[in-house]
């Protein structure tokens, strides 16, 4: 079985490679950023025609934290829309039988009920700080749903909550909160600083899922004969950003104080997924946050020592 993993160099894609590399009978089809431009329809069509994979997982996209999303909405909308359209339509034209598209918990409305059920999709306006990214991910989800309905192909989606783990982006302007704080706290310890600056008020709540759990959830839904069109993937529990700073201070050994930069946005007040659908199907997350943070801090230090730490935003995290 030939499995194409789009975006295999990113946080999720590299976890998918680790997960599927141990699956017997699976041959991975991978293309780096320099080899295949997923925003080019002609390039993607030529790739599919040459490789003819049986299955595809679309984990590619331009990704980033609240600041990157908020300041570059056009790039987030256009690039993710192009990648979704090209990889899904191209797969259909090349006869790919099954495809899994990765969305995001930010597809749900800003004022969705918490925890957010799958049914809250399109029930209200989106959170303004990541509207571009969310619209592109909703389009990808809808492409899968409509292609499945009209053409009979088994294309479906998963909606992960905020992810973290090895191979994350540690660029302080573009990254998500968890890797940003690991780097800030770790550097503060090294430089013997008394203070770390975090963004916003610390009041927003976020749910964090280890990326190895995410890869396992993808493998699980790909085994389902009749999967839901989209299903939430999370842990079912959240913490405030203030609580997260305390956990990261503990893991990194930082004993100073945290200052809150109120000029930076908070984003959604809460973003907790309702995971009952996936739980009922038989999957649940295994890695708890304290354990996941310890492992991620260890990979941060190892990546830093090896010189592979991503500290600058790439044009696209594909
Ligand atoms: O992870 P994050 O950038 O994105 O920020 P979202 C989460 C919260 O952490 C916000 C606060 O309230 C930030 O203000 N925060 C505190 C920080 N200190 C920091 C810091 O040093 N860096 C960062 N980045 N945040 C993203 C979306 O939203 O989540 C994407 O923009 C995507 O579209 C992703 O859905 C999963 O959780 O707010």
Please characterize this protein's 3D structure.
The chain is of the alpha/beta class. The chain has a single domain, classed as Rossmann fold (3-Layer(aba) Sandwich). The chain contains 10 helices and 13 strands. The strands form 4 sheets. Strands 2-1-3-4-5-10 form a 6-stranded parallel sheet, with helices on both faces. Strand 1, helix 1 and strand 2 form a beta-alpha-beta unit. It is globular. The model has no long low-confidence stretch (mean pLDDT 96). Residues 65-67, 69, 104, 106, 129-130, 133, 162, 175-177, 180-181, 198-200, 204, 206, 241, 264-268, 271 line the site of guanosine-5'-diphosphate-beta-L-fucopyranose.
Keywords:
single chain; 318 residues; alpha/beta; Rossmann fold; three-stranded mixed beta sheet; 16% strand; binds guanosine-5'-diphosphate-beta-L-fucopyranose
Provide a compact summary of the structure.
The protein is an alpha/beta fold. It has helices spanning 11-20, 41-51, 66-71, 73-93, 131-151, 177-190, 211-221, 241-252, 276-281, 289-306, and strands at 2-6, 27-29, 55-58, 98-102, 154-160, 162-164, 195-199, 205-206, 208-210, 230-233, 239-240, 257-261, 270-271. It has one domain: 3-Layer(aba) Sandwich (Rossmann fold), CATH 3.40.50.
Distance between the termini: 23 Å
- SSE sequence, one letter per element: EHEHEHHEHEEHEEEHEEHEEHH
- The largest sheet has its strands arranged as 2-1-3-4-5-10
CATH architecture classification: 3-Layer(aba) Sandwich
Number of domains: 1
